[in-house]
Amino acid sequence: MIHARELTKRYGRATVVDGLSFEVRPGQVTGFLGPNGAGKSTTMRMALGLDRPSAGEILVDGRPCRQLKEPLRTIGALLEAKAFHSGRTARGHLRYLAQSNRIPESRVSEVLRLTGLEAVADKRAGTFSLGMGQRLGIAAALLGDPAIVLLDEPVNGLDPEGVRWIRDLMKKLAAEGRTVFVSSHLMSEMALTAEHLIVIGRGRLLADTSVTRFIEANSRTFVRIRTPEPERMRETLSRAGIPVLTGSDGALEAVGARAAVIGELVSAHGLTVHEVSTQSASLEDAFMEFTAGAVEYRASGEVPVRRQGTEGGA
Amino acid sequence: MSAAMSAAVLRSEWTKARTVRSTPWLLLATFVVTVGSNVAFAFAVRGSFDRMPPQEQRNFDPVYSGFTGLGFGQIILLAFGVLLVTGEYTSGTIRASLAAVPQRGVFYLAKWLSGTLAAFAVSAVTVFPSFFLAQSALGPHGTTITDDGVLRATVGGCLYMTLVCSFAMGVAAILRSSVSSLIIMIPLFFFVSPMLNNVSALQPVAQFLPDQAGTRMIEVVPDGESVLGPGTGLLVMLAWNAATLLGGYLVLRRRDA
């Protein structure tokens, strides 16, 4: 269980996390969604006790992380890739972490096996690919068999096989009754793995809801109609009580109607159509629309820009 | 935090130090460079002894002269101390480390202790052989460990080397960067401090710099210029250590990782 109360982080005059309150419950994957720069990584670092909140608090099992005696046994985290020394072996990295929390040496071999790193356990981590580095980070997160797992942008830069492995792992960890809190700037990724969503933008809470409900509320489904007689079509639809919009390419968009209903109307009124197709705005679109007001602004303060790139961001 | 837990963190810090390549290399280099340069300088002094002015011959300090090479060895041990601390920041392991040990004081103390104990062990196995080899290289001008103050000065050599490493860890914890730590400390120890100490107007201040004060510990014949002796020199060196280590702790505690 993670519990944030009025959590705030300021760097100078910039407020990166702004009065966030939420709860992350065990037994499910909770997605932490927001554009890059929304404050996700900062929130996670505060949960781990790495950064100090400017105000408010974030509790792990009811206590600030800094008060936990052997925190790896309670909370494990994968922060941004490469939190290891390039000259140290994978085993060496895990061993010193294990020793600090009095975790038995046998557990090091166990998590190496679990993450498929056995073969490279005694190779220097500097030689690792991005995917192997992520696996090592996850091995470290699982070292203390923690009830709470934090993963910051875990699929960034991974190949499809690695992405799938992480998705399955997260679901498995949640099914074991653990609290799994995973950040991402990709809505589509969250739709595949998370059951619950906490959405933030510019440090503020935008939504705290189930994934299903978020998608229902934010994705727009419509039927696209191409016809040589748009005026008659529009009139027919309006009389049937179906709202009509004109798309950017001139096609009509019947909102909230099923294609079958449109087809029957077309036939009953003898209309000519070239296309009748169901369209749903992608989840990415829904997310972009939802967070549109909450993306970072350029220094000029005029042009809103979404920050590009795959980096986790601060 | 129980004693067993603190011991676990110390063990973890030692594993951390042991599992990077720089550690064995730097510690080995400390030994080789220190012993080698001590012996080489001792031979050189022996060769030029008869050409020294009588005044200098009368005040000749065989122990201090035999430990000239500590000035080189200390730089390597200093780099060891710096890398032990800054390696956490350059590699990003500091976040993994502090997520595992969020009690900053315990973390810092364990890191300092693992580095300082390693430095002390290496200093001991370096300084004592250095003494015997350098004294035999000095030949007729050498001394023996049983002479007045000689054992004290040799132990002082071990302490001096150890305290240089510890001081370096404090500076590195304040600066969090190997480049700036080394850029400040290497010239300080190599040129700036000896230079300032040779300018008579600055000597009253320069004698309190860490290396100038610390090397009073390895003298048998007093330097004559410094107001510090072996005991007071050690105290000044300890004060420098306390100041930088405390500064490093405050930085670690206050700043985000």
From TrEMBL, chain A:
In its keyword annotation, does this UniProt entry include Chaperone? no
What's the family?
Belongs to the ABC transporter superfamily.
Recite the UniProt keywords alphabetically.
ATP-binding, Nucleotide-binding, Transport
Residues of the ABC transporter domain? 2-227
Entry protein name: Multidrug ABC transporter ATP-binding protein
User: Which InterPro entries does this UniProt record tie to the protein?
Assistant: AAA+_ATPase, ABC_transporter-like_ATP-bd, P-loop_NTPase
Q: Which domain of life is it from?
A: Bacteria
One GO MF term attached to the UniProt entry: ATP hydrolysis activity
